Amino acid sequence: MIAVYSTALGPALGGTRFYPYASEQDALEDVLNLSRGMAYKAALAGLDLGGGKAVIIGDPAQLKTEALLRAYGRFVQSLNGRYYTACDVGTNSDDMDHIARECSYVTGRTVAHGGAGDSSVLTAYGVFQGMRAAAERVWGAPTLHGRTVGVAGVGKVGRHLVRHLVEDGATVVVTDVDQAAVAAVQAEHVDVRSVADADALVASGLDVYAPCALGGALTDEVVGQLSAKIVCGAANNQLAHEGIEKQLQDRGVLYAPDYMVNAGGLIQVADELEGFSFERARQRAEKIFDTTARVFDLAEADGVPPAVAADRLAERRMTEVGRLRGIWLG
């Protein structure tokens, strides 16, 4: 399934998620939610791109083949550039190279083919910049030094985020359903502590909670137990339902909207459309700090949660720039 939420700012860009959904309905709901998030993410990041997403239903370890990926590439090609694909859960840069054999609208390719490679590098860097901006708002300094940060999910993005936090002087506690991922992080950073699961992580004494696995991590129960003053992580669609953002605000927890801080990966793969430069993409991702601070300012001025303020900024840009399409150029 491919969902195109908006092309107001440009062609829709978003990754392909290869995942064993329980039903087609679950896959449909996910792809629609994710495509919306990508549109808002691109708008807030200042990119001339719309939002889209794709899902392939199944276990990639069993079903992923060259033929399937190339068939999917022809499907993407049939949209004639309205949608550009990239990596997501269950897909990687090598897969994008296969897709590109049948399709012109592919980003996130391997470095050998002129691509950006692993987009999790700048995704984590952007989350770290957003976390620094949140720390400045809460504690007066843009650093996590001396703070305890809990990272739920230490796969591709979470692993890089842990490195930034450790280098900044934070105390880091991690958890992951994949114990091999936890072991790999602890082998690299011997002072990083682990707990059994996300519930145990949330219940522990944290200054910052960073959900970096799949979506829906912020439920009523989690918010009720949370001791952290900041929530800032890489996972998409963290709010389990509408209204969670208000609960966080009422409990004095500063929430950095997920699509705002995790835009670094999108920035990285989007840079391929100009001929990839890692340094240029890194500088753009660094501006997530400024965007986060701006959203917090607007939230305070309007008396709304940061999630609402971020939506307003994204919607304003989509509307204002989207109007330019009404000017006929002949």
Automatic annotation (TrEMBL):
This is Valine dehydrogenase. The keyword Oxidoreductase applies. Keywords: Oxidoreductase. PROSITE patterns: GLFV_DEHYDROGENASE. Residues 117-326 form the Glutamate/phenylalanine/leucine/valine/L-tryptophan dehydrogenase C-terminal domain. The keyword Oxidoreductase applies. It holds the Pfam family ELFV_dehydrog_N. SMART domains: ELFV_dehydrog (SM00839). Belongs to the Glu/Leu/Phe/Val dehydrogenases family. It comes from Nocardioides panacis. GO terms for molecular function: oxidoreductase activity, acting on the CH-NH2 group of donors, NAD or NADP as acceptor. GO terms for biological process: amino acid metabolic process.
